[in-house]
Amino acid sequence: MAKAKTDAPAKAKTNPVMRYLRETRAELAKVTWPTRQEWLRLSGIVLVVTVAMSFILGVIDAVGAQLMDFFIYR
User: How many domains does the chain have?
Assistant: First the structure.
């Protein structure tokens, strides 16, 4: 008796690296990139917040150091 063909058509094996690169490119095409004006505005906000937080944390650190000196060396 002849053996019936039940195997589904074999899918061509794709290189995982090439598949990853192809899918990454497809996802990047879906991204809505900011305009130059939006990019500059948002970057400015990030820089201002970073500088402000650095100043605040620096003040807190200086006050903490002074308190430690006061309590340790009094």
Answer: 1
